[in-house]
Amino acid sequence: MKFSTKAIHAGQEPDPSTGAIMTPIFQTSTYAQTGLGGHKGYEYSRSGNPTRTALEDCIAALENSEYGLAFASGLAAEQAVLSLLKTGDHMVACDDLYGGTYRIFERVLSRYQIETSYVSAASTKDYEKAIRPNTKLIWLETPTNPLLRLVDIKAIAEIAHRHNILVVVDNTFSSPYFQQPLELGADIVLHSTTKYINGHSDVVGGAAVFKDKEVYEAVKFYQNAAGGVPGPFDSWLTLRGIKTLAVRMRQHEENAHTVARFLSEHPRIEKVYYPGLASHPDHELAKRQMKGFGGMVSFQFTGTLEDVDQVVRRLQIITFAESLGGVESLICHPASMTHGSIPREIREARGLTDTLLRLSVGIEDAEDIVRDLEQALR
User: Fold this and answer.
1) Which residues pair with 120 in a beta bridge?
2) 28: which DSSP letter?
């Protein structure tokens, strides 16, 4: 099946008992058993639920895998993958990454003597230089959050596998529609399904997809043991959102192109970060590695923190809020919101300044989005 067909049908056959086209919401905590070991595949909904199974199978199929797990949030999915590490292990990560991920690395894992080295996201050679004898994971975001740099997944995977290291790729910004990291050599793909996969800003969730069954089984054990799983209604909402993923992503990208071009010509804008622009340093890699450039645009403008506040207050269609990937346009101030957990000196050294805004371009009429930006920046 092609992508759009998988999004609608993978893991979602009509209900065998009623013929219902839509996957039922199995709103139950437990399941009747006929005797010792006598169950129909489900015992307790922390361990497994049919609605969640449909979601896990569908997301796995979209990443061209058989092994998917769903979680209560993107960070719950991250923590489950990080359970593969033990005290004394080392990890290499790109330096431009989500603030919540940085917080886990520096304020949770560090308590267990698990150390992380950060390297420039787009510098392939720096990843190999950072590898130690105890390195177990290389952690990537591509495009990165919020500066939208790209990492060469195939090149990093080749380096990692020479050293028997797993490669984890957070694919949230691209979605499986625009990028499939397992096909490029990655071992594990992560998603905050809150974002593009659900796409309607009405549920929080996460997912992890695996190339190798043994790694999948290890994380599945943690999923059940720790219990950070989505409920059946959240799973159902996410499944409903997935059905329109392909058409939404095409419109997000088309609108983002329009917005990025407008911003790149605006006199108050110092810099625009969007892989679809020929001026982006990773534009050629994006063309090779992705099937499209996505719906995220970050930009830096001339002014002060007070000017940032004035701009976001003036917006009328675009909403000032955390998160991304919904049908509506959302703008955030990474330094004080999504990346506020990263110390200022580290943020600024990585290029994340106080006048940087991150825009999740929605699927409204592109002309209205541009007009809103224009009046706010005027």
Assistant:
1) none
2) -
Rounded Cα–Cα distance for residues 256 and 262 (Å)? 10
CATH class of 245-377: alpha beta
pTM exceeding the 0.85 threshold for the entire prediction: yes
User: Residue 265 forms beta bridges with which residues?
Assistant: none
Pick from 275, 219, 249, 199: nearest CA to 65: 219
What are the boundaries of each domain within the chain?
Answer: 3-242, 245-377
Q: CB burial class (10 A; 0-12, 13-18, 19+) of residue 158? A: middle
Q: What is the pLDDT of residue 206?
A: 98
Residues belonging to the active site: 46, 98, 170, 195
**Which of 3.40.50.2020, 3.90.1300.10, 3.40.640.10, 3.30.70.930 would CATH assign to domain 3-242?**
3.40.640.10
Determine the residue type at 33. Answer: Q
**Could you give the residue ranges of the DSSP H alpha helices within the chain?**
3-9, 50-62, 74-82, 99-107, 124-130, 153-162, 175-178, 213-226, 232-242, 245-264, 283-289, 305-314, 344-349, 366-377
- Phi/psi-derived region of residue 155, left when phi > 0, alpha when psi is between -120 and 50, beta in every other case: alpha
Residues 271, 299: contact at Cβ < 8 Å? yes
Q: What is the pLDDT of residues 295-344, one digit of tens each?
A: 999 999 888 999 999 999 999 999 999 999 999 999 999 999 989 889 88
Residue 17 confidence class, pLDDT cut points 50, 70, 90: confident
The residues that bridge with 272 in the sheet, in sequence order, are: 299
226 forms beta bridges with: none
pLDDT digits (tens, 9 = 90+) for 191-234: 999 999 999 999 999 999 999 999 999 999 999 999 999 999 99
